[in-house]
Design goal:
This protein starts with 7 loop residues before the first helix and ends with a helix. The relative contact order is 0.09. 20% of the residues lie in helices and 37% in strands. Strand 14 and strand 15 form a beta hairpin. The protein has an 8-stranded mixed β-sheet, with helices on both faces. A 4-stranded antiparallel β-sheet has the order 2-3-4-5, covered by helices on one side. The chain has a 4-stranded antiparallel β-sheet with strand order 6-7-8-9, with no helix packed on it. Helix 9 runs antiparallel to helix 10. The chain has 14 helices and 37 strands. By secondary structure, the chain is an alpha+beta fold.
Length: 662
């Protein structure tokens, strides 16, 4: 069994997680839960000599390169405060390319900066293309390139080239046209090879590295897909959303480049996988699920062609275009070797002899194994959180129910380890977003922390959530405080009716939009919940919509389409404006630098609650953003949250080591 635990520098960066085991009904070791993952991604180099991994730090993400034979740390790079490695790729055994992103706050979604960097195994890091010239935090080995106001994104690492890759490049203008350049990974020198026939385009290459597909949208926000049959050929329109009423997302070519596989989003029902015949234009459906969209694509170990999908249908499961293929048989073997887990091949050597396999579940945040495809043996490489004992974590049970209007809903209820699973105190935890985000069966830190305190945790895919097709998501449009909220109410009552939860001991707690839903929940249903907690939430919809309109015209239009454009209705669905309906205690937490849910929302909510005579506790940090970065602040937040919930539901609070650390 192989583990990364050699030099002290590796121990500091990679083995950052401490044990989550040993939680009791008397206290919870918060420190074990607030420690970040040892890494977020790990990939093997083309020859298998090296590993590259992204390492989450306090307010940034670093990239490290390790020699596989002895785990020696060869190179590392980070981009400074609030800067992150969005993705990375082995361009050759000597170079890793990575893209940059920014976010303010632990829960913020990273926004691409359009910069691409190269880190060599010798420790040198250069910026190759993008808007940034000098980047703080990487050190003196950065060689800035000529200033160029463009954003770049990886298109193809060119499997047969050691020195060049393909990148898309676009200017920083409204609705730009994009081109593809061939770029030298050492010098950053670029040569144009293709131009898009549509604005805001992304590209797809075939297995020969030829740019064949462009997918984009014009100012009407309708998606269009173009294909060309070969190098230098004219672009041909394959799909126009305005006439077909569907969106086709290209996912890859068959090994012979004769078939283009598409994930097709329809008006009705979940997305399907379609095989498009390049020569004839014929479409053939190859995979469909009655209830779920494909959540990720499975690619062949030997040639990177798409061969199947992962469905998050309750517990995760796989489906293949050809169930008798070697890739399908390989996955069935892995699934048999790791029962009650979901294995997923994440990277492989160029010859396909070694693959990295991630194995994860509801109780396991992820283990990585190096699988020898010829010898059929697997060796443990490392754990995302080395101290997690899956046997001590809560079971996460998939649930299905009907909303009051008959809409089918899905979700999950966690059952605390060692409990009877009956008459439990429960925390309802609506997800953020809200649109397109969805709950899954996989390991969730907040769920496990609350379960360790003795709570069942309900997580629901209310209408508007992703993974259930376009119509289900659009059913949530303009339903803030309306049917989306009713879905949460209906699910709460359903879990109580099943005998899992004690109806007299239920609180609602959420983050971002989930914070909004928590406060709206106790405003609409004052007798259903004992308390409410909102973390970096939005509570004033007119305030939010005004900010969206100032940010950009497109975002302002989106906000009107999805949230609403009736000023009176928006005000009536704002928790801070109906605080007099709230009859239970409230806990609010927010960050002063939050640009997604500005702290003004929480301050207005607090003021309204105080005016209404509602007990309210607050935790504000001026220097935090959308979610707290600093470990001490996160410890204080979860300690306060457990104390608040414990006072009203009777669950465990933080242990001495957590509560005593300020």
């Amino acid at each position: 069994m192989i583990r990364f635990a050699r030099a002290a520098c590796i121990a500091v960066t990679l083995m950052a997680a401490s044990s989550l085991a040993g939680a009791t009904t008397r206290s919870v070791d918060v420190d074990g839960f607030i420690k970040r993952d040892a890494f977020t991604q790990i990939k093997i180099s083309p020859t298998g000599e090296y590993f590259a991994a992204t390492v989450p730090m306090a307010d940034r993400t670093a990239l490290v390169i390790l020699r596989r034979s002895d785990n020696a740390l060869l190179a590392s790079a980070n981009l400074g405060r609030n800067k992150h490695v969005a993705n990375f790729w082995w361009a050759s055994d000597g170079y890793v390319l990575f893209s940059g992103a920014e976010k303010i706050g632990e829960l913020d979604r990273p926004q691409s900066t359009g910069d691409i960097y190269a880190t060599s195994i010798n420790g040198k890091t250069d910026i190759l293309v993008g808007q940034s010239v000098a980047v703080m935090g990487l050190g003196s080995n950065i060689r800035p390139k000529k200033i160029e106001r463009v954003a770049a994104h990886m298109v193809d690492t060119l499997r047969d080239s050691e020195t060049e890759v393909l990148v898309s490049v676009q200017p920083f203008t409204q609705d730009p046209f994009t081109r593809v350049d061939r770029m030298n990974i050492v010098t950053g020198r670029r040569t144009p090879v293709a131009r898009a026939p549509v604005r805001n385009a992304s590209f797809l290459t075939d297995h020969a590295g030829e740019v064949r597909v462009a997918n984009g949208l014009h100012t009407d926000n309708a998606r269009r897909l173009y294909l060309r049959k070969g190098k230098g050929d004219e672009w041909t329109l394959v799909n126009d959303e305005t006439t077909s009423n569907r969106i086709d997302w290209p996912i890859g070519f068959s090994n012979d480049n004769l078939t283009l596989y598409l994930q097709s989003e329809r008006d009705d029902g979940p997305d399907v996988i379609v095989a498009y015949d390049v020569a004839s234009g014929a479409r053939k459906e190859v995979l469909r699920d009655d209830n779920r969209d494909p959540s990720s694509i499975i690619f062949s170990i030997t040639n990177d062609a798409p061969v199947g999908v992962l469905y998050e249908d309750g517990k995760a499961r796989t489906a293949f275009f050809d169930p008798a293929s070697s890739d399908a048989r390989q996955y069935r073997s892995l699934e048999a070797a790791f029962p009650d887990h979901s294995p997923l091949v994440t990277s492989q050597t160029k010859d396909g002899k070694l693959t990295l396999v991630q194995v994860s579940s509801d109780r396991n945040p992820g283990d990585y194994y190096l699988f020898d495809t010829e010898g059929k043996t697997a060796a443990h490489v490392l754990s995302r959180r080395a101290g997690v004992d899956p046997e001590q974590m809560a079971e996460v049970r998939p649930i299905t129910l009907k909303a009051r209007d008959g809409l089918a809903l899905t979700g999950y209820v966690s059952i605390p380890h060692g409990s009877t699973g009956k008459d439990l105190p429960m925390v309802v935890m609506p997800h953020g977003g809200p649109y397109g985000i969805y709950e899954s069966w996989f390991f969730d830190t907040d769920t496990q922390l609350l379960s360790a305190a003795g709570y069942a945790v309900l997580r629901l895919n209310y209408r508007g959530s992703g993974n259930h097709g376009r119509s289900f998501q659009q059913a949530g449009a303009r339903e803030w405080g309306g049917k989306m909220q009713d879905d949460l109410t209906d699910a709460t009552r359903w879990v109580v009716a099943q005998g899992i939860a004690d109806g007299n001991r239920v609180c609602i707690h959420g983050v971002s939009y989930g914070g909004y839903a928590a406060l709206m929940g106790v405003a609409k249903e004052p007798s259903l919940y004992r308390c409410a907690s909102g973390y970096v939430g939005v509570y004033d919809l007119p305030l939010m919509q005004a900010a969206d309109g100032r940010d950009s015209k497109r975002l302002g239009n989106w906000s009107k389409d999805w949230v609403g454009d009736d000023a009176a209705a928006l005000a009536a669905a704002s928790p801070n404006r109906i605080a007099d309906r709230i009859k239970v205690p409230v806990f609010l937490a927010a960050g002063g630098e939050d640009e997604i849910a500005p702290i003004e929302h929480s301050r207005r909510m607090e003021k309204a609650l105080v005016a209404a005579g509602v007990p309210v506790q607050t935790l504000y940090y001026a220097t935090e953003g959308h979610g707290f970065y600093v470990e001490e602040n996160r410890r204080e937040y979860y300690t306060r949250l457990l104390a608040f919930l414990g006072a009203h539901l009777g669950g465990a609070t933080a242990g001495p080591s957590s509560a005593g650390a300020k």
